[in-house]
Amino acid sequence: MNELFAFIVRHSKWLVFTVLVCVSCMLLFRGDPYRQHVYLTSAGRLASTAYKSANKVTSYFDLLEINDDLNRRNAALESEIVSLNERIEIMTEQGYRDTLVADSGVPPFEFIVAHVISNSVARPYNYITINKGSADGIRPELGVVDRNGVVGIVSNVGAHSARVISLLNPHFRLSCRIKRSEYFGSLVWNGDNPYEAYLEELPRHTVFKPGDTIVTSGYSAVFPAGLPVGVITDDDTDRNQNFFKLRIRLLTDFTTLGNVQVVRNNNADELKAIEEGEENDSKKNPFGN
User: Fold this and answer.
1) How far is CA 25 from each of CA 20, 28, 30, 36, rounded to the nearest angstrom?
2) What is the per-residue pLDDT across 6-18, written as a single tens digit (0 to 9) for each?
3) CA–CA distance, 184 with 86 (Å, rounded to integer)
4) In degrees to the nearest 10, what's the CA dihedral of 68, 74, 80, 85?
5) Which CATH number does the domain 108-277 belong to among 3.40.50.300, 2.40.10.350, 3.30.70.980, 2.130.10.10?
6) Does an H or E element contain 128, and which?
7) Which of 213, 210, 208, 204 is nearest to 238 (CA)?
8) pTM, whole model, 2 decimals?
9) How many CA atoms does the CB half-sphere of 117 hold within 13 Å?
10) pLDDT, tens digit, 9 for 90 and up, residues 214-227
């Protein structure tokens, strides 16, 4: 209590001044309607400015949640697009027959949204770490993409994080084809430029031109067919060789990689079992000796 009295005595001049100013303003605006209108208008503007500033601050903190929601919606749309493309392909091949039978109600591919927490682009062998793991349904050999194109493939998985072999890694080879044709080859990074890769092993009779889009071939259970990968810039091979080697400008910017989507193939186990069964059958002696 003594400290309170000491504070009032020490700042008594300012307290008296503040009280007098408040009383003067009340007397000034109470008796004059015009001045009262000016006061209310100015106060309203000041309050409006304060509310707008506060709204901007709160909106900024809501951006992370909004961004996560947009990524989840985008992943759901990607899954629907892949499912629709496969249904269209089935309808085209079968002449609209047995389409409903082929649709089991379960989308062939699902997309799990994740965030990059570690990434390298300047090393000979680059890797990426994401903030999702086995607790979120992530497992090894799942593909990873972003909104622009292919990113890599999951190699090691923990409970709440996973390591991804980046496309910028010579150990990672991706089966791709030219979008406007059926010619396919293997995409591989040569270790120099994080914005470029090479599409190798293309047949000599391949028809292409600079600007053509390169997409995934779909010849594996990792990535669905038709995902964008890059654009042809030029060919880097001798025309007398049996195979072409094309320089590809990657669509994914690995230097600014942020949110990604992990591709989960719901039919992967079935496809793997079929492939293993075929391998076992090929090892058997057809004559039964």
Assistant:
1) 9, 5, 8, 10
2) 766 677 777 777 8
3) 19
4) -150
5) 2.40.10.350
6) strand 127-130
7) 204
8) 0.63
9) 10
10) 999 888 778 888 88
